[in-house]
Write a structure and sequence with these properties.
Oligomer: homodimer
Radius of gyration of chain A: 14 Å
Number of helices of chain A: 4
Strand content of chain A: 15-25%
Helix content of chain A: 25-40%
Structural class of chain A: alpha/beta
Largest interface: A-B, 42 and 42 residues
CATH topology of one domain in chain A: Cytidine Deaminase, domain 2
Order of helices and strands of chain A: HEEHEHEEH
Distance between the termini of chain A: 28 Å
Low-confidence stretches of chain A: none
Largest sheet of chain A: 5 strands, mixed
CATH class of one domain in chain A: Alpha Beta
Strand order of the largest sheet of chain A: 2-1-3-4-5
Number of strands of chain A: 5
Shape of chain A: globular
Mean pLDDT of chain A: 96
């Protein structure tokens, strides 16, 4: 999660919403790390999790990240949650909870849908305070 | 929708699930057209809609596709539905309904969530028979 926080801080420095994500393989090796890039890439799908999933799939040469785990500083949105399911990630560790935009514990609760075919194990609240503080100070500075 | 069906047929010829998507600007000019590429790109996020959104945003140099419309041969999944919302697409025209994996009229019904901040107008059932037949014959041939 420390690596994901570093990616989030780097995103903030680029003027992006500070969210970072890391994917590790079953041996704990980092396959991919990314921060949010929606502004830099002018791409509404360029969330940290999506970029990490795409990079990890490219690194493995496979569209399924079996037995791999994701660390992300904020509760994933519905788009990213569904991508996590498609990617067959084993575990998701997330930092701050996101009542407004989250898609795991909030909104459509993607993994609780009967039409969701792969549900990762979920561990929320890791480094929650630091992850949340990064977001709060980013939005405070922009207001 | 005819162009989206052509993309879907081309996807089938590549061995991909036959789904195609097209994005047009307010003047009706095609900004992007794509077929599903999850296998070719080894990317679990490479659905036709995601590729079309990313290409259209790149073409416009903007992460928001204001007043642009999406044509897609199958009801979008929850990942694509959320990406459609983030991209601020104005209208979504889709072909076949998808009770198993759809995210608009089925499953998490992304646009009906109170946490969904942009809801496009939705028009389902366009060229439904042809779009559905493409999918049925693809899966029948694979069984």
């Amino acid at each position: 999660m420390e690596r994901a926080l570093r990616e989030a801080r780097a995103a903030a420095e680029r003027g992006e919403v500070p969210i970072g994500a890391v994917i590790v393989d079953p041996a704990g090796t980092v396959l991919a790390a990314a921060g949010n890039r929606t502004e830099a890439d002018r791409d509404p799908t360029a969330h940290a999790e999506m970029l990490a999933i795409r990079a990890a799939a490219a690194a493995l040469g496979a569209p399924r990240l079996v037995d791999c785990d994701l660390y992300v500083t904020l509760e994933p949105c519905p788009m990213c949650a569904q991508a996590i399911s498609f990617a067959r990630l084993r575990r998701v560790y997330f930092g701050a909870s996101d009542p407004k935009g989250g898609g795991i514990d909030h909104g459509p609760r993607i993994f609780s849908q009967p039409t969701c075919h792969h549900r990762p194990e979920i561990y929320g609240g890791l480094a929650e305070q630091e992850a949340g503080e990064l977001l709060r100070s980013f939005f405070k500075a922009r207001r």
